[in-house]
């Protein structure tokens, strides 16, 4: 009786898919597509993280007071009116002033003045988003992330129905147009409306570019490219910090970012449709044309493409209509969805809350934001090395533990004691390294858990919960009004919870991408059969041994 292969051997056994058998796992064609998709992370970062410079930490006081537009004047005012000083999230200031004639307290009836030595204008200074209007700062970020959330769902489903390329181009055009409009509109609620529509398009860009990047590679490159794809996000933050230093007016900054993002319209001529999506939806002729061009670019046999593609199963147009209900078509898909939703929700809270909180970690926001973008680079490279050796689950769990340790470590170091608060900045940098490991790995892990026919919708709805977490993030920041330590305590505990939850999902290292829902269920059944066969084979000698003893 030949020995059956173990479950672990089966799990690690590579299987050749359509990309691998026609154009190779990775070549010049895949490099071009992957690079173009990765470059889209620049505008994604600019629009999502621009709130750091649109609504930076601000010092304010009543307009009737003498102008104190300097650090020394600000400190003197705090000494004289310490009892009236208020902390509003990242902002500090005075919503009331002391009447020197009769020592009575009065409200700022004439409005507010702001310390503009660093930031000349912001949405806070333009629309007086302090005191009674302080929650409107949170509204601006919450509506932005709500738009990204809706974009993840809507364009995720749209891309599964209409294709990746069409969806991507629509999103690129819309986010640039609405970005320019948001930088020019003079009313707060008009700005909120334009940013919301911008965010919807931005959400579509996120999910479609990632899935497109993931679907054009094969083999071991499937665990490398979707992670390296995330690198420009950190550099995008650093570039934005440099632009913010040059453009101290918030409208100029937002316009510059929007105009830069409009150049991506050239993708119309450089990005093809995803051949994997075309095949999964039964469009073989188009897929053959694209794969033959790719094979030629990679120096492979173009004639083989038609032979391999025509030898596939019949067209799968019955699965062409991707819907949200399809994500819960089976028990296994539903279980994966629930666990991924919880993980992405916590990841969103942790990532966006800490990204905003980082402005409080060091004394120079431009420097801290720029450094945080650069330190994400080694974290992403480290992610590639770890994930190939230890798999998806252990990589993500270990990164969460590292991040939690850094959050608690920052609490242990008092602010203002060391030069430039360097120990806190270092710990924040290591924490960002942890986040730069866990987020790309979670993106990859999520994409691998869904079949091709619902992958865009699956990734989109999963990342949607990250946006829900990002809407909760401003509320976590405002917890420092209760206690300065509370935000980091909440974030540290949340990271530990996520560590435990990720281990309930199945490992995908070495497994081929499922193409259809039926394919996913078939492979799960196959794994169960291998487990059972392996168990029976191991237990049979023991049974025979026990039986022989009884006969004797």
What does this structure look like?
By secondary structure, the protein is mainly alpha-helical. The protein folds into 2 domains: 25-56 and 133-281 and 329-502, MFS general substrate transporter like domains (Growth Hormone, Chain: A), CATH 1.20.1250; 59-117, no CATH class. It contains 23 helices and 6 strands.
| Beta-strand residue percentage | under 5%
The CATH architecture of the largest domain can be given as Up-down Bundle
> CATH class of the largest domain, please?
Mainly Alpha
Structural category is mainly alpha
Note the main sheet: 4 strands, mixed
Strand and helix order = HHHHHEHEEEEEHHHHHHHHHHHHHHHHH
Could you list the spans in which at least 5 consecutive residues all have pLDDT below 50?
1-15, 315-320, 527-552
* Number of structural domains: 2
| Whole-angstrom Rg | 27 Å
User: So, the CATH homologous superfamily of the largest domain?
Assistant: MFS general substrate transporter like domains
**Average residue pLDDT:** 78
Helix content: 55-70%
CATH topology of the largest domain: Growth Hormone, Chain: A
Strand order of the largest sheet: 2-3-1-6
| Broad shape | elongated
Number of H/I helices: 23
Q: Distance between the terminal alpha carbons, to the nearest Å? A: 26 Å
Number of strands: 6
């Amino acid at each position: 009786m030949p020995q059956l292969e173990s479950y672990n051997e089966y799990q690690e056994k590579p299987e050749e898919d359509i990309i691998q058998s026609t154009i190779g796992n990775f070549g010049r064609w895949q490099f071009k597509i992957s690079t173009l998709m990765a470059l889209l992370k620049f505008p994604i970062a600019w629009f999502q993280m621009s709130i750091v410079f649109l609504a930076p930490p601000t010092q304010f006081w009543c307009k009737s007071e003498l102008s104190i537009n300097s650090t020394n004047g600000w400190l003197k005012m705090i000494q004289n009116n310490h009892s009236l000083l208020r902390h509003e999230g990242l902002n500090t200031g005075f919503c009331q002033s002391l009447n020197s004639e009769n020592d009575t307290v009065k409200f700022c009836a004439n409005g507010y003045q702001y310390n503009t030595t660093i930031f000349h204008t912001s949405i806070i200074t333009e629309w007086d988003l302090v005191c009674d209007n302080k929650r409107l700062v949170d509204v601006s970020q919450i509506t932005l992330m709500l738009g990204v959330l809706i974009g993840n769902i809507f364009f995720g489903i749209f891309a599964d129905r209409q294709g990746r390329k069409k969806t991507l181009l629509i999103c690129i055009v819309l986010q640039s147009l609405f970005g320019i409009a948001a930088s020019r509109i003079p009313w707060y609620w008009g700005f909120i409306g334009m940013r919301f529509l911008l965010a919807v398009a931005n959400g579509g860009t996120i999910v479609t570019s990632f899935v497109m990047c993931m679907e054009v590679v094969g083999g071991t490159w499937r665990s490398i490219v979707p992670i390296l794809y995330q690198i420009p996000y950190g550099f995008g933050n650093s570039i934005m910090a440099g632009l913010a230093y040059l453009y101290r007016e918030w409208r100029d900054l937002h316009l510059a970012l929007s105009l830069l993002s409009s150049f991506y319209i050239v993708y119309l001529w450089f990005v093809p449709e995803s051949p994997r999506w075309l095949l999964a939806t039964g469009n073989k002729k188009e897929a053959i044309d694209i794969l033959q061009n790719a094979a030629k670019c990679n120096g492979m046999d173009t004639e083989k493409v038609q032979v391999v593609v025509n030898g596939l199963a019949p067209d799968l147009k019955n699965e062409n209509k991707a819907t949200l209900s399809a994500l819960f078509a089976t028990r296994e898909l539903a279980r994966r969805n629930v666990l991924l939703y919880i993980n992405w929700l916590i990841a969103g809270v942790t990532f966006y809350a800490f990204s905003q909180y980082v402005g409080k970690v060091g004394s120079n926001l431009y420097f801290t934001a720029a450094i945080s973008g650069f330190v994400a680079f080694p974290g992403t490279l480290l992610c590639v090395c770890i994930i190939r050796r230890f798999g998806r689950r252990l990589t993500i769990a270990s990164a969460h533990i590292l991040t939690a340790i850094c959050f608690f470590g920052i609490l242990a170091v008092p602010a203002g004691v060391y030069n430039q608060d360097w120990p806190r900045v270092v710990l924040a940098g290591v924490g960002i390294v942890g986040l730069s490991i866990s987020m790309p790995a979670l993106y990859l892990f999520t994409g691998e858990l869904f079949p091709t026919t619902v992958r865009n919708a699956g990734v989109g709805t999963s990342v949607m919960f990250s946006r829900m977490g990002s809407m909760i993030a401003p509320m976590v920041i405002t917890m420092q009004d209760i206690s300065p330590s509370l935000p980091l305590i909440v974030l540290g505990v949340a990271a530990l919870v996520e560590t435990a939850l990720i281990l309930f999902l199945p490992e995908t290292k070495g497994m081929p991408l499922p193409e259809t829902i039926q394919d996913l269920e078939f492979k799960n059944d196959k794994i169960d059969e291998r487990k059972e066969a392996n168990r029976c084979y191991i237990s049979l000698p023991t049974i025979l041994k026990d039986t022989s003893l009884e006969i004797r």
